[in-house]
Amino acid sequence: MAALSEHDGVDIPADEAAVVLLDSAGIVQGWSRAAADLLGRPAEQVCGQPLARLLAEPVRGDSPAVPAGRVAFRHASGRTVEATVDEVSLGGSSQRVLLLAPSREDGAQEQGSSLLTALLEQSLLGVVLCDAELRVVRTNVIDGGHGWPLVRPGHRLEDVLSPADVKEVGGQLRQVLDTGVPLLAREQRMSAPDGSGRERYVSVSAFRLADGHDRPTGIAAFFTDSTQQRRARRRTEVGHEASARIGASLDVTRTAQDIADVLVPALGDMASVEIAEAVLEGEEPSKVIRPGDWLRLRRVAVASATGPWPAELVPVGGVIPRFPDVPQVRQAAIQGDTVYNTTRQEMLDLLGDPDLIRAVMPARGHSAVVSPLYARGLLLGFATVWRTEQPEPFDQDDADLVFDISSRAALSVDNARRYTREHRAAVALQQRLLPRATTSTAAAESAGCYVPAGGGADISGDWFDAIPLPSLRVAFVVGDVFGHGLHAAATMGRLRTAIRTLADLELEPGELLIHLDDLVQQLADEADPEDRDTIGATCLYAVYDPLTGSCALASAGHPPPAVIGPDGTARPVEVSPGPPLGVGGMPFEVTTVALEAGSTLALYTDGLVERGCHDTDQGTRELLDTLASLCRGDGTLEEIGRAVMAGAAEAPPRDDMALLLARPRLLPAADIADWQFPDDPAAVAEARNAVARRLAEWGLDDLTFTTELTVSELVTNAMRYAGGTVGLRLFHDDTTLVCEVRDSSNTQPRLRRALAGDEGGRGLFLVAQLSRRWGSRYHPSGKTIWAEQPIDGDPVPDTGLAAVWDGVTL
């Protein structure tokens, strides 16, 4: 053992144990280098100080002695260091020598050594020990058993990782080395350093290694290849996404796009979906594919993770070229087999048509999965996914996943196909039930618009109508049947037919709604008991008279109409709505308003004002503002209606929307003649003469004979059966001449065929023969009988009617 120094602070060398020289008072007089390393304190810091101050626990009493045996000392860093203390006496001297040997847990040390050996010898967990420079010192990854990459002792990160991964992985490991914070189970993507583009996923855990003085010496990293587990998780996630996403729409094209979006980029770089044209039309494709037959496929959806869809490939909407009739293609089409890992050369060898390959296969595509969309025994189309940038080819698990997705998606496509067929039938039914969108009469021009709920997905019972009435009047109707679907559309058709029938009876609006209410109650009685409460409708019925410019209307639970004046100001019409149709027992109040020339009447259903989060009042204000703005321009009613509907249908509406716009017209006063005649038979001749003079003024001399005969018969009957003053009104437009006779009687005139011996009964028969149509309507003070003649029609031939006239009236 080397010599000991005095307490001058000079280190005392020692080869094995830490040596401490103490005087009789326990003051340190000498301090070896081993002691300095053991407690982290240099000699100049310790010498001259009591050794007892370095103990972890104070010595009892005032004794400066340090007990022999295992003693706990305080390291300069604050941690506790245990050492075995032995005292050596120096003969004839009061000084003592202490030997401090670090305590060693032999069992723990042996156990740690065994653990490290076991870790390095096993092959399930990769172990890499690196020094402070992140150079590999020891590892068990020398044969590729843990996947890629291989690691050898002496390797650095740049030797085993791609340049893109060196910075990321190296930064993480250096952070562990600097901070001591471990890295636990971090999944790391790693690319092959050879530039092939191959990728693996590794689950990495790393811990800092330190020496006995807590100085970092390196890194211990443990990793496992998690590529397969990640792919399994990815497949599970893709399967879940496919279940949640595909089938949410009942549109074939939208469903096909969902399929492509699920496949890319989760499974491949590019995908396309081709659907049989029959399926797009809602029809079933052929169940039997004979030799030489081939489905006419149309590409309806694509997805690309690498940029726009290549121009050389068949675009969306394009027809897929006919494939050769080869066994592999037929097997996929007939048996529903999935073909995967198909390379460009294999496709070329199979099909033998380079132009066809260029049209259907991406230029960089090296692996593909083609899966038929098979459902309920029908081949609906194909789904194809390509890998162009991802270097790994598809494996069987990938193909199985694409097959599972395609199988579930095929059912969704077929459901969408069936819905398309039913929806088109419903749309066709409703279109047949709705009137023409635009009309133009002497009373008004009108334009109607209809938008189904759900952007066309739902068909309901909203409708509009413009009904020509006698005496050049017109009726405007808008209604909304409760519920959706074919039943609502069918009910709408029945109500519209009933309204047209009732309109021909020339009932005033309130009375017409009473009859319509009875019909709805009958429909409810005919329905199943559980459906009766759902049968009903709202309706607004208005009648406009172009002679007076007045509009009489009544509402059955329907929103009030709006009037946009010639100056562009819009206001709602104040009405007193009755209950919806089907309630029964309640009257419907009639409101009469005057419409100025150049104004616009707007009738609409509640779907147009109850959109989104708007309440009815706010929606009505927005509609009125929109109509006011549009009517100030010079657009046609059809253009205004389309603009209103386009703004209202920006988001798929929750309810149907119907709008009827009408621009009333006033008949010129010069085209109207009105007389009053007393109850005197001599006034009949005066009426004939007045009519003849007015027809001559209008240039309608060719209608004089038939009109005089009509007026004579109607005025005579009014005087004979009603009595009192008789009103006569004659007016016309470009196509029709109307004759009206008013009296105070409510007796309904009836047409009958007079026998040879009858003295009367021929008057209405003659009127019916001479006019295009005739009829009567009631008002509070009596009735009006009217007859219409076509102005552009051929004159009535003289076949003895004049003689009959003379015999009847004279």
Rg estimate, integer Å: 50 Å
Number of DSSP-assigned strands: 32
Note the gap between the termini: 167 Å
**Biggest β-sheet strands, sense, barrel:** 6 strands, mixed
Query: Helical proportion?
Result: 25-40%
Could you tell me the strand content as a percent range? 25-35%
Shape: elongated
Name the average pLDDT.
81
Main β-sheet, spatial strand arrangement? 1-3-2-6-5-4
The helix/strand class is alpha+beta
Total DSSP helices: 20
Q: Uncertain runs with pLDDT below 50, 5 residues or more?
A: 1-15, 796-810
Can you walk through the features of this model?
The protein has 810 residues and is α+β, with helices and mostly antiparallel strands. Helices cover 32% and strands 27% of the residues. The chain contains 20 helices and 32 strands. The strands form 6 sheets. A 6-stranded mixed sheet has the order 1-3-2-6-5-4. The chain has a 6-stranded antiparallel sheet with strand order 17-18-27-26-23-24. A hairpin with a 2-residue loop joins strand 31 and strand 32. The chain starts with 10 loop residues before the first strand and ends with a helix. The N terminus and C terminus are likely disordered.
What are the salient characteristics of this protein?
6-stranded mixed β-sheet, disordered N terminus, 32 strands, 810 residues, 20 helices, 32% helix, single chain, alpha+beta, disordered C terminus, 6-stranded antiparallel β-sheet, elongated
Topology, please?
Blueprint: E1 11-12, E2 18-22, E3 28-32, H1 33-39, H2 43-46, E4 69-74, E5 80-89, E6 96-102, H3 106-121, E7 126-131, E8 136-139, H4 157-160, H5 163-179, E9 183-191, E10 199-210, E11 216-225, H6 227-245, H7 252-263, E12 270-276, H8 277-280, E13 297-304, H9 327-335, E14 339-340, H10 344-351, H11 354-360, E15 367-375, E16 378-387, H12 396-433, E17 438-440, E18 444-451, E19 460-468, E20 474-484, H13 486-504, H14 509-526, E21 537-545, E22 550-556, E23 562-564, E24 570-572, E25 591-594, E26 600-604, H15 616-631, H16 637-648, E27 657-664, E28 672-677, H17 682-698, H18 704-721, E29 726-732, E30 736-743, H19 763-770, E31 773-779, E32 782-790, H20 801-809
Parallel strand pairs: 1-3
Antiparallel strand pairs: 2-3, 2-6, 4-5, 5-6, 7-8, 7-11, 9-10, 10-11, 12-13, 12-16, 14-15, 15-16, 17-18, 18-27, 19-20, 20-21, 21-22, 22-25, 23-24, 23-26, 26-27, 28-29, 29-30, 30-32, 31-32
Helix pairs in contact: 6-7, 6-12, 7-12, 12-13, 13-14, 15-16, 17-18, 18-19
